[in-house]
Structure to design on (257 residues):
């Protein structure tokens, strides 16, 4: 009789030797606060300078890449997928959410040719230390207390973005705890329809094995970023049909890894 029980999870393979990991993490303890201070306070003195948003966003991306390197984490993305993102226009980006590492991995993987930003809840944008940096970086501020209003604000922001710039959305809304993808909310599809944009699905693999819920410090290993073909909404069909089709597309890629 065939055993249909789930296969055990494969433990992540560390990319650094134990001594190297120890040295890097020691350096992280020293350099981490310095990175944070530069990222947090640079906007306070430079936000009004010409071209600030471009160089500040690249600064944040480089800081994320260095943080992952110090943690012994490598982000793997194929040359073809990187080229597809570099040439991507007229889209919003949708990714699955497995771990607090997902945003850092995405910042590392997306090439500088592709402009992107995140939607941030209003409470974060109101924080005194973060407000200037978030606004300077072009994050889209949304008030999640009013779902309909938040979608209207987000759709309007997307409509006015340059074609090469995309907002990044997590359709699961929170980190999934299921073996596969969690349930998708309709927001990304609604915004894509209202703004007349396609959706560029990105699937993150392995981040939850390095930093699962309840763990403070991540393990060393590899996170894989997979870029899927553009997804076009069918405005003649119900929104829920598009949501189900998008989830099925991303789930096939996630489960087939």
């Amino acid at each position: 009789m065939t055993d249909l029980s789930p296969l055990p999870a494969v433990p992540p393979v560390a990319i650094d030797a134990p001594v190297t990991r120890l040295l890097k993490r020691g350096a992280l303890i020293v350099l981490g606060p310095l990175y944070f201070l530069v990222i947090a306070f640079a906007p306070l003195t430079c936000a009004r300078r010409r071209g600030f948003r471009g160089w500040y966003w690249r600064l944040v991306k480089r800081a994320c890449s260095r943080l992952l390197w110090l943690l012994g984490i490598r982000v793997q993305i194929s040359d073809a997928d990187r080229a597809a993102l570099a040439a991507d226009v007229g889209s919003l980006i949708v990714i699955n959410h497995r771990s607090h590492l997902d945003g850092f991995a995405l910042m590392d993987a997306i090439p500088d040719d592709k402009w992107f930003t995140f939607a941030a809840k209003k409470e974060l944008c109101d924080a005194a230390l973060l407000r200037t940096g978030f606004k300077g970086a072009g994050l889209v501020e949304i008030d999640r207390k009013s779902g309909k209003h938040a979608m209207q604000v987000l759709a309007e922001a997307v409509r006015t973005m340059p074609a090469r710039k995309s907002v990044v959305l997590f359709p699961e809304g929170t980190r999934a705890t299921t073996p596969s993808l969690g349930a998708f909310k309709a927001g990304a599809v609604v915004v894509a329809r209202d703004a007349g944009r396609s959706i560029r699905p990105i699937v993150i693999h392995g981040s939850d094995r390095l930093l699962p819920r309840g763990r403070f410090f991540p393990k060393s290993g590899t996170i894989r970023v997979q870029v899927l073909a553009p997804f076009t909404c069918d405005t003649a069909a119900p929104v829920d049909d598009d949501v189900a089709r998008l989830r099925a597309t991303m789930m096939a890629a996630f489960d087939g890894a």
Q: What stands out?
A: The longest strand covers residues 198-205. The chain has one domain: 74-255. Residues 85 and 121 are 26 Å apart (CA to CA).
